[in-house]
Amino acid sequence: MTLAAVGTSAARSPSSVGVWRIAQSAVVVSVGLYAFAVAVRLWAVGLISFPMTEGSAYYVAVARNLVAGRGLLIDSLWSYSTPPLTLPRPTFELWQPMATFVAAIPMALLGSLGFGAAQLGRRR
Amino acid sequence: MPLVVVLVPFALIGAWQRRRDTWFAPFFVYAIALFAASGLVFAVHVPFGTFIHSAVALLPHTFLLVTAGVGGVVWSVAQRRPNWNVRRATAVFTYGAVAVAVAGAALQTMTTVSHWSQVRGVQRELAQSLRAAPETDRIMSADAGAFHYLTGRQGIVTPNDELPVIEDGMRAYDVRWLVLEREAIVPALAPVLAGEMRPSWLSQPVAVVPRSGGPAVATAGPALTALDGVAGALYAVCLSPADTRCGQ
Fold first, then answer.
1. Which of A76, A94, A107 to mutate to test the interface with B (most CBs of B within 10 A)?
2. Minimum distance, in Å, between the CA of residue A87 and any CA atom of chain B
3. In A, residues 38-77, which contact B (CB 8 Å cutoff)?
4. Quick check: A77 and B145 CB within 8 A?
5. Closest to A87 (Cα-Cα) out of B169, B7, B34
6. CA B230 – CA B216 distance, rounded (Å)
7. A90 forms bridges with which residues in the sheet?
8. pLDDT tens for residues B177-198?
9. Exposure of A109 in the CB half-sphere (CA atoms within 13 A)
């Protein structure tokens, strides 16, 4: 059953018409807000040419090491409260892996260790 | 920022209106738990952390509560102003709240990005001064991740402690360079950046970046007497008597 058919059948009772309109409105608003948010984020990505925060620098550094074949290592010590206190050291004692892997995938696909690749293919 | 400055009263009114709404029950439970834990437990041993990151999860429901609160306020005012069209006024004021949030977010984003760019500009200039240093040299800085990204060299964060502890940290990791930035400096090293004192294991500034911006200035000569105008500086760390870089 297509959406149009659903709309036609739903139009049989006044109450279902109201529900269908609300549903349509909710879908339009949700998709519209999502598209707007994506557009804003893409614009914001364009403003950023380097990892600006400690956390983002961490994710990019680990992704670089992963794609370069060094494994899940980090070459900077940002806290003395999480052993082992060695350099390089194992990762993800605080910051979690997802952002690193999200950055590593386009890096590997594009064959680039640059920050632009980490930003899902935006090359500098 | 707009949420904090302008929209919080509406969020509180909306929260009161929706206090029995089961869809908001998980939000209320999480919010109460977070505020209680942050205020009563974490504040004791984590004075600068944890709240903001955890509070982000509250934002979507909070903005929904703002719209509910705006509707409630408009309805309340409309009871005293019969000429108001409640539906139209609710739409106008709700869109107004959204506009405030969007404008505030855009302004805050631009301000934050500008500040970050300024900080990273100083770091980039100081990192340029390390181009000739061996790849294996380690750096102590306030943002070890940033300097690893910019220089490719390993590094450790500056401990927020007294000078002897900082020196111990340098010895433990065989640090060869120290970066000081005015934007993020531990109290023990602030006099060093100000040019008021210099430990024996530290060189004169190898390079400084002025607060007004621009490239790093090499300072192989005598000590700078006034570093008030300095945004950041790079120093050699000499932990061995054989290291002559701190001799001047």
1. A76
2. 7
3. 44, 47-48, 50-54, 57-58, 60-61, 75-77
4. no
5. B169
6. 10
7. A73
8. 999 999 889 999 999 998 888 8
9. 14
Residue B217's DSSP bridge partners are B208
Q: Are A77 and B116 in contact (CB < 8 Å)?
A: no
β-pair partners for B202 = B237
Residue B38: count other Cβ atoms within 10 Å of its Cβ: 17
Residue B12 corresponds to which amino acid? L
C-alpha B226/C-alpha B203 separation (Å) is: 16
pTM exceeding 0.80? no
- B59 pLDDT more than 60: yes
CA distance B76 to B161: 55
Residue B238 makes CB contacts below 8 A (sequence gap 6+) with B201, B202, B203, B244, B245, B246
Within 130-159 of B, beta carbons closer than 8 Å to A belong to 138, 143-149, 153-157, 159
